[in-house]
Amino acid sequence: MSRFKGIIFDLDGTILDSMGIWERVDHMFLAEHGIIAPPDVSEIVKKMTIEKAAEYFRTRFSLGCSNRQIIDRIEQIAADMYRYNIALKKNVYKTVEQLHEAGVKMCIATATYPSLAVSALRRLGIYDCFEFVLTSTKAGSGKDKPDIFYMAAERLKCKVSETVVLEDSLHCIQTAVNAGFYTIAVYDSLSHNDWKQSCKVADRSITDMGEFLEIWKELK
Asked: Left, alpha or beta for 187 (phi > 0: left; psi -120 to 50: alpha)?
């Protein structure tokens, strides 16, 4: 009998080569308000839900608009990038297709806007490989808390002990490990400074999604 039955994939930086996009979006949004983005802003908001990020922007930069207006505008700025430009990371298509054909239950758990996630996955031809896309907004918290991982496993009808999580960000890896998930660190160039620590914290680590197919054969 297989030990592991389900897989939770992060989206940005794990499936999609998109982490650099969000820094550009943050800078573009603040520039519209006449603000030069501080170097730490993207690193801070990437750990937040969409709602908390909007509140952070509004209060830190004293913006004269509502949280809803901030959310909507940032989504507008990012929309075309997800619909037309962002690519899959190397060997993601092959890996996801093979897992899907083998009947493995998989989902996406992301802090990204649901409309952007779905549009990118549809365009790139892998949307139907996943059972569902779960967002931090739906889970009610960011990935500094384990709620989204627990909810995803429950919806996959898998126990925590039967579920593998793939993440590129150190704080997400730490959360998943602490929650009891078998966790694999995925290399992304924008998380390079945290890579050594991510490898220490995670159960396994990969620099290319193609490596995960071999790991999955071992795990199952």
From this structure: beta
Q: Would you tell me the crossing angle of helices 67-80 and 50-60 to the nearest 10 degrees?
A: 110
pLDDT computed for residue 2 by the predictor: 62
Residue whose C-alpha is closest to residue 131's, from 154, 160, 159: 154
Classify 185 as helix, strand or coil: strand
Count of all residues that appear for the chain in the document:
220
Cα–Cα distance for residue pair 94/40, rounded to 1 Å = 35
Tokens representing 41 are: 């802003």
pLDDT, tens digit (0-9, with 9 covering 90-100), for 123-144 = 999 999 999 999 998 998 989 9
User: What is the radius of gyration, based on Cα positions, of the chain?
Assistant: 17
SS (H, E, C) 131-177: CCEEEHHHHCCCCCCCHHHHHHHHHHCCCHHHEEEEECCHHHHHHHH
pTM reported for the whole predicted model? 0.91
pLDDT in tens, 33-61: 999 999 989 889 988 889 999 999 999 99
CA 71 to chain centre: 18
* Non-local CB neighbours of 89 within 8 Å, separated by 6+ positions: 14, 15, 16, 17, 188, 209
Q: Tell me the residue ranges of DSSP E strands in the chain.
A: 6-9, 105-110, 133-135, 163-167, 182-186, 204-206
Average confidence (pLDDT) over 190-218: 95
Is there a contact between 117 and 129 (Cβ–Cβ < 8 Å)? no
